[in-house]
Amino acid sequence: MPTKVYTRKDTSEVSCCLKYIIFSFNVLFWIFGLGILVVGIWAWLEKDTFNNLSQLTHIALDPAFILILGGTLTFVIGFTGCVGALRENTCLLATYAIFLALILLFEMTAGTLGFIFKDWIKNQATGGFQTFIVHYREDPDQQNLIDWIQEDWLQCCGIEGPKDWDKNNYFNCSSHDVGSREACGVPFSCCRRKPNELIKNKQCGYDVRKPGYKLDPAKIIYQRGCVDAAEEWVEINILYIASICFISGFFKILGICFAQNLRADIFAQKAKWH
């Protein structure tokens, strides 16, 4: 009688748990990146930047451009991780892991260089803030950003102090001769908040730098410069910043390991098929 040969069916397959963890995380990342990209493009369209290329002189400091750049990078990374995991595409998974590794390397390098070259970074921040002041009325995005920095984040005024607003044509004291009501003043975001103030007085910074001003400017506007305020903020919150960087790095390493393990499973499965 013929001998029956029993063969054990291979039930091994790519880990569904690993596959859908990578997919679920990156589909959210993908949507988030798309949202940032759309907001950045919308901001550029609102400013009519595409039809006025002269506005691209300080593109690196344009918040809309930064949103477009960050949204594009986030969208691409999310796409490679999401589609790579769903379609079990080893090429996309490898690209995803490389992206995460490069970002992790960049963050580590930036953190190290930032610690070593603190003075250089301070000088660059000073130059960037000065550009914001000079073009304060020309770009609504930069205007909103500097108002947020001065009013909400750091409670400061100017680079080293309120006098730095003399670099802006509207707030320069000589602008009074050409009829600028803001001459010898500062933006409203420099003003100290009053208790129980519901509506912000947009004219609170008028004339505060004018010689012979009847009130004490120190009681109306912030006297501390934003560069020193930012430096102090970093020193106070260094532990929180380090914790966020550590957690971010941990998740990137985790993502790289997951992607590599999934690729290994896919390669092993393909080898059994052949």
From TrEMBL:
Spans traversing the lipid bilayer: 20-45, 65-86, 93-117, 238-259
Disulphide-bonded residues: C156-C184, C157-C173
Keyword entries, A-Z: Disulfide bond, Membrane, Transmembrane, Transmembrane helix
Protein's membrane topology: Multi-pass membrane protein
One cellular component term from this protein's GO annotations in UniProt: plasma membrane
Chief location: membrane
Database matches in PANTHER family: TETRASPANIN (PTHR19282), TETRASPANIN 26A, ISOFORM B-RELATED (PTHR19282:SF431)
Protein name as annotated: Tetraspanin
Organism: Bemisia tabaci
